Amino acid sequence: MPDPMRIRATAKNGEVNVKVLMAHEMETGQRKDAAGKPIPAHFIKQVTATWQGKVVLSANWGTAIAKNPFLEFTFKGGKKGEKIQVTWNDNKGEKRSDEATIN
Amino acid sequence: MDQTRRDVLKAGGSASLFALLAATGMLKPEAAFASDWNQKAFEAKNIKDALDALGAGSAVSSGDIVITAPEIAENGAVVPIAAVSKIPGTEQISILIAKNPTALAASFDIPSGTDPAVSTRVKLAQTTDVSILVKAQGKYYITKKEIKVTIGGCGG
């Protein structure tokens, strides 16, 4: 099971700012190991953030997103105490969902 | 309270309808992800092929897209990029990196109610132009910025 995400959601002036830090190798498939064997690609392909059942951001990613990906965005609506969920899945079929409370 | 549950159970047809919808892919049991992962676009080796695969071959240059990124990235493995679109009706923001092994780094779908602005961190193999492609009301707009890299981000 991959490590949990760190999600910070802050309500201000009727908007919620969301910062997410995911734990993932984001291996490009371009690198070789010490023995010269290619290291297979392993990267997050899709990310979705939902609030009250509504998708507030979704993304498709390639291998160029940096290791332990960072993502920041802002949406309208959302109040303190409400929850936001973030889900990702990667090219090996692994996935992870985490939830944070807006504050 | 329990009556509702019984009613639902009695209406057994709805369960099989759900199964049918799920089987035909009309209803995805998982959280709704973005539009399908565009393999052709993500495997494109250069910006032109990536734009063509995205259907954005006719993207016009725009001054209403703001890229915030360092002029010089000391470490190409972690380069912060922020993209803001001032184009009304922005529905998608994509990041393309000209001199990476594959050009398309990410595509963000922006639903209504979400600000047309995203920040993330990318890997740059070498000094390169970074382009931001915006889809707004079905049309494509693009702008670019050069980022100098002193240490490459691909294990170099």
Which key features would you list for this structure?
heterodimer, A: 103 residues, mainly beta, Immunoglobulin-like, 4-stranded antiparallel sheet, 3-stranded antiparallel sheet, B: 156 residues, alpha+beta, 2 domains, 6-stranded mixed sheet, 4 helices, 21% helix, 38% strand
Largest sheet of chain B: 6 strands, mixed
Q: Output the structural class of chain B.
A: alpha+beta
Strand order of the largest sheet of chain A: 4-3-6-7
Looking at the overall shape, the CATH architecture of chain A is: Sandwich
The number of helical runs of chain A is 0
CATH superfamily of the largest domain in chain B, by name, is: SoxY domain
The percentage helix of chain A is under 10%
Rg of chain B, nearest Å: 21 Å
Number of domains of chain B: 2
What characterizes the major β-sheet of chain A? 4 strands, antiparallel
The unreliable regions of chain B are 20-30
Task: Give the integer mean of the pLDDT values of chain A.
Answer: 96
In the CATH scheme, the class of the largest domain in chain B would be: Mainly Beta
